[in-house]
């Protein structure tokens, strides 16, 4: 038993060896004869794989969750053809193809050879002409449409990124999803040719088995023509059906995947039932038509009456309202049912809905039903309030109170953070587990086992610990988060990342008015020089680069000083940054108040400066593709090795001129760099500079073609 368990444990750790073993076995079946017992086992494995694939396709939430399907189609088709060769060898050499083939042939044929051949012909026709042909056409059209739509989708992603609707990580995820989608449709278009060829090969193999088997039986073994036909036809039909049925299941699996439209949040069964039962009127009309069919003479009345009743019950009729209507009475409305009836309310009833619920909340947290039952709402509200207060203390932006709501349709143990009804954070938790928020080494030292999952709190994989180990975690002083703590952490991250969404005209006015009691003259002068709309834009651009608005007095004084001289909000932002230089340097400095910095060379600055384009809609950077690639490669060469150099001086910053600073920063953000970009005016005297190097672009000319809006 121990060697078997050891083998299973090794096989689980080395999953790559499974494919190698299948391919080696396939080659072996093509060359070497196999015993009938082994053939039975391989036929069972073939059936099991086809059943598993079709079940996975049914419960699939998105076609992109099964991108390995084209490869599975190839491997399973080759394996099945090799198995056909093995069974054919057994039929022609010994007249014994194993128990499964023999039993299947006897069961299907039922003593009639013609019936077996007809059934095989029907199954092959259904697979070849109906399923495979249709699936192949859908995959071909889907691949063509997907490739044609790729440029538009990529431009849409770039547009959302430039406008700030999504961040760099979300844009990268969408591009990766788009590439996976196009690759899947292209691969499926080619993979279905294997299925089509498999169906043709099945027809040829059955003819070869019939002719060859009858010839061998009558000529070599001296059997009567009737006995030879009975024996070899039974085995041939059994072999053909036992091969064609898995092939048919595989074709249906491919058809389910390529014909899946939408439904990225539910499996196929729920998607179908929800859409079929969404229109109650259609169900009632169908029930009436079935009732009429039951009245047709000769039709089985119980069948149609039962189906009619089923459709009628599926439409969920309001029996109370129906009885009241039949009695010519107005149905009474129970006040306790008003909340449940709200989705169906019309006219005057709609006007009673709370105005707060009639519009999309600025920020909300949606919990699945199972998660909502397990989380203590009071503690969650407290943690969310602390997270909002922490972000407000860091950035000086008043964060709105989140609306915590329940997703009645969600069955998974998950939550999402939504800003203006658009999810910005979506995570699935493990019920009955705690999330480690500490060094995994401490977990090993304490002898506590955890399970690895998708990253939630950062880039590293998450480690889940059973809730039963909470006492041991506390005793070992190991940090962890429960469900409420995870949601508060992700909520805090969403607030920091999207803080600019919370600054509009009204919020900017409220932020300034908080200073009016002490600095009334300053506030009045600042709002006179800089209109409130421009003031809100300046605040948003400062917060976008995590510059706190807490020092509002200094911000307003700077705007009063430069507001009459400079009308462009972007340059006003640079002047405000210069006034807040100590605050900015403190955020980027290391433990000894030193700034590790790369200086952007004059040639690189000139390339960026020449690529800036001023339009009525605003200025943007349009680097030539070659210059952009060279600039990016130089940045990666200099900045990437120093990403981890945070212990002595903090994350290195890039220092450049004021007029190109924001364009350089935008270029770095779009390409995944987290380094800050400071102008020479942003450097405070009491924060010494630790120069690391210079970023030069020798030989690069500035020309502009591809537009990257800032």
TrEMBL record:
Keywords: Cell inner membrane, Cell membrane, Membrane, Transmembrane, Transmembrane helix, Transport
Entry's transmembrane regions: 17-35, 41-60, 72-92, 107-130, 199-220, 240-261, 281-297
Subcellular location: Cell inner membrane
Bilayer topology: Multi-pass membrane protein
Record-level GO BP terms: protein secretion
Listed InterPro entries: FHIPEP_1, FHIPEP_3, FHIPEP_4, FHIPEP_CS, T3SS_FHIPEP, T3SS_HrcV
Principal location: membrane
A Pfam entry, by short name: FHIPEP
Record GO cellular component, one term: plasma membrane
PANTHER family: FLAGELLAR EXPORT PROTEIN, MEMBRANE FLHA SUBUNIT-RELATED, INVASION PROTEIN INVA
NCBIfam families: hrcV (TIGR01399)
Family: Belongs to the FHIPEP (flagella/HR/invasion proteins export pore) family.
Protein's UniProt name: RhcV protein
Species of provenance: Tanticharoenia sakaeratensis NBRC 103193
């Amino acid at each position: 038993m121990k060697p078997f368990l050891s083998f299973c444990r090794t096989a689980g750790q080395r999953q790559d060896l499974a494919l190698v073993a299948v391919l080696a076995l396939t080659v072996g079946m093509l060359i070497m004869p196999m015993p009938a017992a082994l053939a039975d086992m391989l036929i069972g494995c073939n059936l099991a794989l086809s059943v598993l694939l079709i079940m996975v396709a049914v419960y699939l939430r998105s076609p992109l969750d099964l991108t390995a399907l084209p490869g599975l189609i190839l491997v399973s088709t080759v394996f099945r053809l090799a198995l056909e060769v093995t069974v054919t060898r057994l039929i022609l050499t010994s007249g014994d193809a194993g128990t499964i083939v023999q039993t299947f042939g006897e069961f299907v044929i039922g003593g009639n050879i013609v019936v077996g051949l007809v059934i095989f012909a029907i199954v092959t026709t259904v697979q070849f002409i109906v399923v495979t042909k249709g699936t192949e056409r859908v995959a071909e059209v889907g691949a063509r449409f997907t490739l044609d739509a790729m440029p538009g989708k990529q431009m849409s992603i770039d547009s959302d990124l430039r406008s700030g609707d999504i961040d760099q990580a979300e844009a990268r995820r969408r591009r990766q999803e788009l590439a996976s989608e196009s690759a899947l449709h292209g691969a499926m278009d080619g993979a279905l040719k294997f299925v089509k060829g498999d169906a043709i090969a099945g027809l040829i193999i059955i003819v070869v088995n019939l002719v060859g088997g009858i010839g061998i039986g009558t000529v070599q073994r001296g059997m009567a023509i009737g006995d030879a036909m009975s024996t070899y036809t039974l085995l041939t039909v059994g072999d053909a059906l036992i091969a064609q049925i898995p092939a048919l299941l595989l074709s249906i699996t491919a058809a389910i995947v390529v014909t899946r439209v939408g439904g990225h949040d539910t499996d196929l069964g729920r998607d179908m039932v929800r859409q079929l039962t969404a229109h109650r009127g259609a169900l009632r009309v169908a029930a009436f038509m079935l009732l009429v069919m039951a009245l047709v003479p000769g039709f089985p009345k119980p069948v149609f009456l039962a189906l009619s009743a089923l459709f009628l019950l599926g439409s969920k009729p309001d029996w109370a309202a129906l009885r009241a209507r039949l009695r010519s009475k107005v149905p009474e409305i129970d006040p306790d049912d008003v909340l449940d009836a709200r989705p169906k309310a019309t006219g005057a009833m709609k006007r009673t809905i709370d105005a707060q619920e009639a519009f999309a909340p600025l920020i909300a947290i949606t919990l699945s039903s199972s998660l909502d039952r397990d989380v203590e709402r009071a503690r969650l509200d407290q943690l969310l309030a602390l997270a909002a207060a922490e972000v407000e203390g860091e950035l000086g932006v008043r964060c709105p109170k989140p609306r915590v709501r329940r997703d009645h349709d969600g069955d998974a143990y998950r939550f999402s953070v939504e800003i203006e009804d658009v999810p910005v954070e979506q995570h699935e938790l493990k019920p009955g587990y705690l999330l480690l928020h500490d060094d995994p080494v401490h977990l090993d030292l304490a002898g506590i086992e955890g399970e690895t999952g998708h990253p939630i709190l950062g880039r590293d994989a998450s480690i889940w610990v059973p809730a039963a180990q909470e006492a041991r975690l506390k005793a070992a002083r190991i940090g962890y988060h429960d469900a409420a703590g995870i949601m508060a952490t992700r909520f805090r991250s969403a607030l920091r990342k999207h803080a600019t969404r919370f600054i509009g005209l009204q919020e900017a006015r409220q932020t300034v008015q908080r200073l009016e009691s002490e600095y009334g003259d300053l506030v009045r002068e600042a709002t006179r020089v800089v209109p409130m709309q421009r003031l809100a834009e300046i605040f948003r651009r400062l917060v976008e680069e995590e510059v706190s608005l807490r020092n509002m007095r200094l911000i307003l004084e700077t705007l009063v000083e430069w507001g009459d001289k400079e009308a462009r909000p972007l340059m006003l932002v640079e002047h405000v940054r210069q006034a807040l230089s100590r605050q900015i340097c403190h955020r980027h400095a290391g433990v000894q108040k030193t700034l590790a910095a790369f200086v952007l060379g004059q040639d690189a600055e000139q390339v960026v400066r020449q690529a800036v384009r001023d339009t009525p809609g605003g200025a943007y950077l349009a680097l030539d593709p070659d210059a952009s690639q060279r600039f990016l490669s130089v940045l990666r060469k200099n900045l990437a090795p120093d990403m981890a150099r945070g212990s002595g001086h903090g994350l290195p910053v890039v220092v450049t001129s004021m007029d190109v600073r924001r364009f350089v920063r935008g270029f770095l953000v779009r390409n995944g760099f987290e380094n800050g970009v400071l102008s020479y005016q942003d450097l405070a005297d009491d924060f010494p500079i630790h120069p690391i190097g210079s970023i030069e672009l020798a030989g690069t000319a500035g020309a502009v073609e591809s537009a990257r809006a800032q």
